[in-house]
Amino acid sequence: DAKTTQPPSMDCAEGRAANLPCNHSTISGNEYVYWYRQIHSQGPQYIIHGLKNNVTNEMASLIITEDRKSSTLILPHATLRDTAVYYCIVRVGGATNKLIFGTGTLLAVQP
Amino acid sequence: GAGVSQSPSNKVTEKGKDVELRCDPISGHTALYWYRQRLGQGLEFLIYFQGNSAPDKSGLPSDRFSAERTGESVSTLTIQRTQQEDSAVYLCASSLGAGFTQPQHFGDGTRLSIL
């Protein structure tokens, strides 16, 4: 089972920041938070990951709360091409390293 | 650079036939994963390779499913005696290593339709 909870859908105006929340209250101390997105008919695209400090790359910023029980993915200037399903994933440890995908958040960027 | 490549992109076959799906990972990536995504649903893990070995096959749904990897590169997922419930997009991912900090990079999948 997925260890994360996300809202099923969100809207965002084009050019504005999109803030996507994720709850992961049972996260363990050494588990990373990963974000992927999936645009229709494509494979999931890696966005960003982090452990406990805020992270920024060319695509997005990841803000993780101090207690690590929740995080927010920020797309600073959303475009229509950012419309996708966004998945927040807690990376499962052990021998498998598999990703467990939940149902994600459908972000619809509106013109 | 080149990403994960999967072939064919689409496959339509009759129930009962065998199918082979191919994955070419990113060069140098030692870890390789197969996932399945049924229509309108999330991704399900199938199998994980580290090099040519498969430490975790726990997601393979039945003994009709098998996978191999050779040369620490190409992987093939084989489904024997296909059933209609096997219809899905089969996705392959690879990562530089298998640790927590190594992102998995996905191909665009093979869309399998069983008639």
Characterise this structure:
- The complex is a heterodimer of chains A (111) and B (115).
- Chain A is built from no helices and nine strands.
- By secondary structure, chain A is an all-beta fold.
- Chain A has a five-stranded mixed sheet with strand order 1-9-8-3-4, with no helix packed on it. Chain A has a four-stranded antiparallel sheet with strand order 2-7-6-5, with no helix packed on it.
- Chain B is mainly beta and 115 residues long.
- Chain B has no helices and eleven strands.
- The N and C termini of chain B lie far apart (36 Å).
- The interface between A and B is medium-sized, with 25 and 26 residues.
Q: What is the strand content of chain A?
A: 35-45%
- Kindly provide the radius of gyration of chain B, computed on alpha-carbon positions and rounded to a whole number of angstroms: 13 Å
What's the alpha carbon Rg of chain A, rounded to whole Å?
A: 13 Å
What about the largest sheet of chain B?
7 strands, mixed
Task: Give me the number of helical elements of chain B.
Answer: 0
Physical arrangement of strands within the biggest beta sheet of chain A: 1-9-8-3-4
Provide the succession of SSEs of chain B. EEEEEEEEEEE
- How would you sum up the global shape of chain B? globular
Roughly how much helix do the residues of chain A carry, as a percent range?
Answer: under 10%
Label the structural class of chain A.
mainly beta
Q: Could you give the distance between the termini of chain B?
A: 36 Å
Largest interface: A-B, 25 and 26 residues
Average pLDDT number of chain B: 94
List segments of chain A where confidence is low: pLDDT < 50 over at least 5 consecutive residues.
Answer: none
Order of helices and strands of chain A: EEEEEEEEE
How much helicity do the residues of chain B have?
under 10%
